[in-house]
């Protein structure tokens, strides 16, 4: 069976297990019944799925989760046991015909338009537009939100880590043990990779999504060895000559030689640790990357040099405690001293991995201190999105039977933009995105080189003319007539899309501290449409 | 098929899909190979799974996730495709016999002891003790951590909400759309229920775990109606007489009568909203609970009184925006005025549900303001555990081949307590738990009425004598010889265990602000054992 077959098989097992129509809030089903009972079976609705604020005090978001949404639409079906459960759970006076209606429901009459997965997106611009029978479109709400909210939040978080870490540092996701359970961990691995991470420690995520998996050993491996007697075999065959080499003798000898170069005495180094490292090196001579603390540097260098005698080059070390900036600099200096002393230039380039409660701010601080880390392993803060653990996507009715709907609120930020709309991204001559523009679908698309009046949706005086050098229509139809119209791109392409999409954003919008907000505007026509509707719908209060 | 059969079937589908040996960090498998290669196949290890700090700035934690851990042990098996994937993923020079070894691995030689699920637990006291072959015990680490960490965090969070809300208020979990994906949402529903919530909006969680599901309608239901013409049918049959009642006529009439009593003019009430509420009432005459804003109160009361004319009692309202304390008081006063004016005493007792970004502090603040809310619907803050999105359980090697292991750290909080241990909870005469005591397994259990010296594990001078009135041995063997020895309790019993276990804690330990720490001690014997081992293992540094 090919790796791709395996991937599909396992994806499907997962999908079928959990993502199903009952993965929803009960009120969707009670509303469905009330709609059904009110004769609204043929009502046609348009819902927008969007968020109101960028996460992490940033000014951009990465849209992800579309592929999972399409699978959900494809598999949407109430099983017999689902219907049986609903009959037990809903009040006894529900008409039986409603359950027959549910039983036959599919998404064949739904049309789903979306922004491309992996794109940079902004508040108020719908990520998904769902059109079709009111009842079915309503029944999709919670599941679509669940699939988009966490995926987009994770991808955005990962992209932010990638930006602060820079292009030349590897990023590995190590968060499974702290994620929201098994599937939370899998989603975290997947969307961290999409957002720009290089790999994960999560083996099942590797298998399911074909993501590179990485890992070395834990501290318990070291503590399971006490003395040099715990080494089972000390023999490693030379990489080329196949001559047996005694790795223990070599490492012991090197430990003495190295200790004079790097000023750590062999007494400070633990024999149990040396035994562990030798055993690990014999198991993984081509992939020797060892977890060490300060005193462990001597043992590591000794084993790495012994491996070199056997024709293998060590990979490097992982530091998991202490002052990561200081320790990485110390380790790099040590490697350089050894490279110089023993004429092994490659030794100075050994990989230094750092883990231990790393977040965006830690990386920024390490950058300032001039660390020498090649790779960060990031867990808790990444997968729980500790800085903001939820993206607040909402799903709002904007049109019914061709009539626009507006949700009013005393909080102007919560007023929805009504009607069936299109979204365009307008680019400047230098290739950067200038503004996202929402228009009524009946309006002609903005033209390249033509002056477009862009208005703030709610502040009358905020207006600007824009002459775009390029116009991108943000929506494509991904699902129609019961079929996926555009196949979702493979993970790797979505991952590339994230980086190419981010490159179109000016640096000041992406920066960590006080970023400049990106503008989202409405056309003059849509502005007037919103405000006319607002006045029609808002009751005139009475001061008393 | 019975409901229980359905539940089991769906649990299993989920379990088999995701919780499997590959749901782990790669380093567990590389370590397994290094152990195997080092001849450690017959080494026997003891690992403790514990956390170091209570979450949410509290002084207690609820232990949950044990049932899932047992299922994981039961199903532990590398499939052919797992092995194939590992062969592709690990370095090419891995000996093929290792894969044959993995292929046959099961948990039959593992012994798992644990504290009862749903118990109050404290830092440093192991929740799980895993004994058995080093390699297998090591391979379980990440998955056990994943299953315990989020489950315990959620159950603890839910229990804290329950405490601040008090016994007489219902708590509903509404968080699916903001959870870490589908399974994050299911776990949140399950462990919120265990922690003391009364139900969830998540229908699949209801079906899988037999949790009560609750829900009404969303704002979009109201906005989908524009005018009174949108009502499909206005007829509801009387609950007893079966006479047809015209709910629209009745509600319109009541709207005029009520408006004079509660001082909201009918012009302020929206006809679209009235149409929506009438339609909802006709669909759910026995379960009429409506989402309303301030002006919606008039429409709600009109429909509720119309329903009363048809022999049905409305359930109540949900408030989802604005000042919840003020609005709940206003709504209660309105209900009381109507009860008085129309001689309908039950009307004053209508249920008031509040939702909208509620957290522990919001509830405390509402309590201070004297709210009139009967039920909270809680989403984002509950399911993401926003205040602290991860519990830091760790899994540490404490003994190998009968020899104790200690992990030293410059941070004394990270030093592990070595050896095979037992844990006892000592109770005072008033029934409250006094202290948790860790002992070496070779020591006799502390006796009721006997003086026990309890020592702080690391601070020499902190000691106390305790004379327990009751002693509870905290560990039971749940898994041995390849079988579950004690069947995990049904969800409802675990949920009751949480409350009974919390009742044994003094109030000052449970309070929200500046709680008193509960004491965890070691026996004198264990104290000396730790410190002797520490001195043997800690290198003597050099000041320079």
TrEMBL record, chains A, B:
Q: Which CDD domains match?
A: NAPRTase_A
Task: List, for all copies, the residue spans of the domain called Nicotinate phosphoribosyltransferase N-terminal.
Answer: 22-149
Question: Where does the Nicotinate/nicotinamide phosphoribosyltransferase domain lie?
Answer: 315-416
Q: Which residues cross the membrane?
A: none
Q: Which domain of life is it from?
A: Eukaryota
Signal found in the keyword field: no
Key words of the record: Ligase, Phosphoprotein, Pyridine nucleotide biosynthesis, Transferase
| Pfam families, sorted | NAPRTase, NAPRTase_C, NAPRTase_N
InterPro entries cross-referenced by the UniProt entry:
Aldolase_TIM, N/Namide_PRibTrfase, NAPRTase_C, NAPRTase_N, Nic_PRibTrfase-Fam, Nic_PRibTrfase_pncB, Nicotinate_pribotase-like_C
Q: Is Ligase included in the keywords of this UniProt record?
A: yes
**Pathway recorded for this protein:** Cofactor biosynthesis; NAD(+) biosynthesis; nicotinate D-ribonucleotide from nicotinate: step 1/1
Enzyme Commission code(s) on record = 6.3.4.21
The kind of enzyme this is, by top-level EC class, is: ligase
Signal sequence: where? none
* Post-translational modification (record): Transiently phosphorylated on a His residue during the reaction cycle. Phosphorylation strongly increases the affinity for substrates and increases the rate of nicotinate D-ribonucleotide production. Dephosphorylation regenerates the low-affinity form of the enzyme, leading to product release.
What catalytic activity is recorded? Answer: 5-phospho-alpha-D-ribose 1-diphosphate + nicotinate + ATP + H2O = nicotinate beta-D-ribonucleotide + ADP + phosphate + diphosphate
**Record domain Nicotinate phosphoribosyltransferase C-terminal: where:** 421-529
Q: Which PANTHER family match?
A: NICOTINATE PHOSPHORIBOSYLTRANSFERASE
**UniProt family annotation:** Belongs to the NAPRTase family.
Job of this protein? Catalyzes the first step in the biosynthesis of NAD from nicotinic acid, the ATP-dependent synthesis of beta-nicotinate D-ribonucleotide from nicotinate and 5-phospho-D-ribose 1-phosphate. Helps prevent cellular oxidative stress via its role in NAD biosynthesis.
Q: What NCBIfam families would the database entry show?
A: NAPRTase_put
Q: What name does this protein carry?
A: Nicotinate phosphoribosyltransferase
Organism (species): Loxostege sticticalis
Q: Taxonomic classification, please?
A: Eukaryota, Metazoa, Ecdysozoa, Arthropoda, Hexapoda
């Amino acid at each position: 069976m090919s790796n791709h077959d395996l991937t599909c098989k396992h994806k499907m097992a997962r999908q079928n297990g959990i993502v199903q129509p009952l993965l929803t809030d009960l009120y969707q089903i009670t509303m469905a019944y009330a709609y059904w009972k009110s004769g609204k079976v043929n009502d046609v609705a348009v819902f927008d799925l969007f968020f109101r604020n960028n996460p992490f005090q940033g000014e951009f978001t990465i849209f992800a989760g579309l592929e999972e949404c399409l699978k959900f639409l494809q598999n949407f079906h109430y099983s017999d046991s689902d219907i049986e459960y609903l009959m037990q759970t809903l009040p006894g006076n529900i008409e039986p015909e409603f359950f027959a209606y549910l039983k036959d429901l599919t998404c064949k009459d739904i049309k789903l338009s979306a922004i491309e997965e992996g794109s940079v997106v902004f508040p108020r611009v719908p990520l998904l537009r769902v059109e079709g029978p009111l009842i079915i479109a309503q029944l999709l709400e919670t599941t679509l939100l669940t699939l988009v909210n966490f995926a987009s939040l994770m991808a955005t978080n990962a992209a932010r880590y990638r930006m602060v870490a820079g292009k030349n540092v590897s990023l590995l996701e190590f968060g499974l043990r702290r994620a929201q359970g098994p599937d939370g961990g899998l989603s975290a691995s997947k969307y961290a990779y999409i957002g720009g991470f290089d790999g994960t420690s999560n083996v099942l995520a590797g298998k399911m999504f074909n993501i590179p998996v990485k890992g070395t050993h834990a501290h318990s491996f070291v503590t399971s060895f006490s003395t040099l007697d715990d080494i089972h075999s000390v023999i490693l065959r030379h990489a080329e000559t196949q001559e047996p080499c005694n790795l223990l003798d070599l490492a012991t000898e090197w430990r003495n030689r190295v200790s004079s170069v790097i000023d750590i005495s062999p007494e400070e180094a633990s024999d149990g640790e040396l035994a562990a490292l030798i055993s690990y090196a014999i198991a993984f001579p081509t992939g020797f990357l060892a977890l060490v603390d300060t005193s462990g540097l001597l043992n590591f260098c000794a084993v790495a040099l012994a491996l070199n005698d056997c024709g293998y080059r060590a990979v490097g070390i992982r530091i998991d405690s202490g002052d990561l900036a200081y320790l990485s600099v110390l380790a790099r200096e040590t490697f350089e001293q050894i490279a110089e002393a023993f004429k092994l230039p490659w030794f100075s380039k050994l990989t230094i991995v750092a883990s231990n409660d790393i977040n965006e701010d830690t990386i920024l601080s390490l950058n300032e201190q001039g660390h020498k880390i090649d790779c960060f392993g990031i867990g808790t803060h990444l997968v729980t999105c500790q800085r903001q653990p939820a993206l607040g996507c909402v799903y709002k009715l904007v049109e019914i039977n061709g009539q626009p709907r507006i949700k009013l609120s005393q909080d102007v930020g919560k007023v929805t933009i009504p009607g069936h709309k299109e979204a365009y991204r307008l680019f400047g001559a230098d290739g950067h995105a200038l503004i996202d523009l929402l228009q009524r679908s009946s309006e002609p698309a903005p033209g390249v080189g033509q002056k477009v009046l862009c208005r703030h949706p709610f502040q009358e005086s905020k207006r600007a003319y824009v002459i775009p050098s390029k116009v991108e229509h943000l929506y494509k139809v991904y699902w129609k007539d019961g079929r996926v119209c555009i196949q979702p791109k493979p993970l790797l392409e979505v991952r590339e899309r994230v980086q190419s999409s981010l490159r179109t954003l000016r640096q000041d919008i992406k920066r960590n501290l006080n970023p400049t907000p990106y503008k989202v505007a409405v056309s003059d026509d849509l502005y007037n449409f919103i405000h006319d509707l607002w006045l029609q719908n808002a009751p005139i209060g009475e001061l008393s």
